[in-house]
Design goal:
The protein is 59% helix and 15% strand. The protein is α/β, with parallel strands linked by helices. It has a single domain, classed as Outer membrane efflux proteins (OEP) (Up-down Bundle). The strands form three sheets. The protein has a five-stranded mixed beta sheet with strand order 1-7-6-4-3, with no helix packed on it. A two-stranded parallel ribbon has the order 2-5. 30% of the residues are buried.
Length: 489
């Protein structure tokens, strides 16, 4: 027998008026649209011949021509723990979105049971028999007003948001790997130079001691030479500490232990970081960051998702329509449960109207609306921070080029003086001590130049990160719940 029922509650005039007014208030979503992007000028404030408005290349770290750096970046994208965590968050977000999509579909379950009946009232042994039961239950909320559809759309947008956050983490990890690697290589060069400085200072001490014996130098000259040597030894120790720390940081960034990275760093390179010629850098337009930076794109997705959440919350005021179906049967024999047709058939329809939940629903709607407004403010804050970061890093880069150029001219001048002194020493015009001091001055200036080069390259890397470059030519694909970078064809 089929039994169809419709249960409903009358909608009060107050609740209907409230729902209508809330729907009208929600119809205009202009308050959730930011006007800030339209106010951004395309050009950067810093005007310099050292920069170009041509878009930068995707794999900017390959510009340095360092095979080891390229290998480290690739390992970081594959093994970095923050990236792996973001990988799992993307997979989780996708699964949550699938759960929300499932709410649009009917749910069903099948039941199969066995009951044992025993009664001692009949005969010496009583009566014993089994009853087998089987049933099919189904339920479906008819999404007439699109409430569940809005929530599934919000879930999809948050899934896309997680992908952009994944890209932001990959961009940060890539930048940190490049910066730490370059600092490590420059530190190694400074260590090498300081070792030569200390060797020269030791030779000077020996010369001064000989001069002190012959009466042409004072004890204070020896003490001053020892002070200079100890100062250089202290600097050397500090640089070696930095070398170890940078090595350990790189190990963490690429997901390796400190002892594993040693062999990786020993890979020979045809080019040196110090040979990289800093100069004109293609950067694109400032307004491009709205389409490039993953954190800005993620914030946009969050606004759209919050608006859909708000719409869905508003539709909680409207009636909900549900259909249920129950079909089942029973028999003493398992094979006869459905032999003569199901003996229970029940299909029902329900209409539910929230009458006495107005206070809770109004509060929840206000909360969802406030979250949408917060999402807009976070989006605008993200844009402002991005603009500040881009302008600041570009200013640092352009000015560091000037500083590096000046240091380079100083180094070339001191290197020329050293060569002149070498010729003078051959002709006996100057002493060995004077030549050693000239060598020390050249090596110290080379270390200063390396420090300026580090500032320039660090600013360049920070700027590439600020404009969100590096992954435009790639797309994210899934394979067995794993995220992979795939180059676009």
């Amino acid at each position: 027998m089929k039994n169809i029922k419709i249960h409903s509650k009358p909608l009060s005039f107050t609740a209907l008026l409230l729902s209508t007014s809330l729907l009208s208030a929600c119809a205009n979503n202009d308050e959730f649209k930011s006007k800030l992007p339209a106010q951004i000028k395309p050009e950067f404030l810093t005007d310099s011949s050292e920069v170009s408005n041509i878009a930068s290349s995707d794999n900017w770290w390959m510009e340095f021509g360092d095979k080891t750096l390229n290998s480290l970046v690739q390992m970081g994208l594959e093994n970095n723990k923050d990236i792996k965590i973001a990988n799992e968050q993307i997979a989780t977000s996708r699964d949550l979105n699938n759960v929300q999509i499932a709410s649009l579909l009917p749910s069903a379950s099948v039941k199969l049971g066995r009951q044992r009946f025993a009664s001692p009232a009949f005969g010496p042994n009583g009566v014993k028999y089994d009853i087998y039961q089987a049933g099919f239950d189904a339920a479906w909320e008819v999404d007439l007003f699109g409430k569940n559809l809005d929530r599934s759309r919000a879930g999809k947008l948050r899934f896309l948001e997680e992908i952009q956050l994944y890209k932001a983490i990959a961009l940060r990890v890539t930048s940190e790997i490049a910066r730490n690697y370059i600092e490590l290589r420059i530190t190694e060069k400074q260590i090498e130079n300081l070792q030569e400085v200390n060797l020269a200072r030791s030779k000077i001490i020996d010369i001064i001691k000989q001069k002190e014996t012959s009466g042409t130098a004072a004890k204070t000259d020896i003490h001053n030479a020892l002070i200079n040597l100890n100062d250089s030894l202290t600097q050397l120790t500090e640089l070696k500490i930095s070398q170890k720390v940078l090595t350990y940081k790189l190990a963490v960034l690429i997901g390796k232990t400190p002892d594993q990275i040693s062999d990786i760093l020993k890979t020979p390179n045809s080019n040196s970081i110090l040979q990289y010629q800093s100069g004109i850098v293609p950067i694109g337009l400032k307004s491009d960051i709205l389409e490039r930076r993953p954190d800005i794109i993620a914030a946009q997705f969050e606004i759209q998702a919050a608006v859909f959440d708000k719409k869905a919350q508003l539709k909680e005021f409207f009636p909900s329509f549900n259909l249920t179906a129950n079909i089942g049967g029973g028999s003493k024999n398992l094979g006869d449960v459905f032999k003569n047709g199901a003996n229970v058939k029940n299909i029902q329809g329900f209409v539910s109207v929230p009458i006495f939940e107005g206070g809770r629903l109004i509060t929840e709607y206000k909360i969802s609306k406030a979250k949408a407004k917060i999402a807009v403010l976070i989006y605008e804050k993200t844009i402002l921070n991005a603009l500040e970061e881009c302008e600041s890093e570009l200013t640092r880069y352009v000015n560091s080029l000037v500083i590096e150029s000046a240091a380079d001219q100083q180094f070339k001048a001191i290197a020329s003086i050293f060569k002149i002194n070498q010729n003078k020493k051959r002709f006996g015009v100057i002493s060995s001590e004077e030549l050693l001091n000239a060598q020390i001055a050249m090596l110290k200036m080379e270390n200063q130049l390396a420090a300026k080069k580090l500032q320039t390259l660090s600013s360049l890397i920070a700027f590439h990160k600020a404009i969100g470059g590096g992954f435009e030519g790639y797309e994210i694909k899934f394979e067995k719940d794993q995220v992979w970078w795939v180059e676009k064809k």
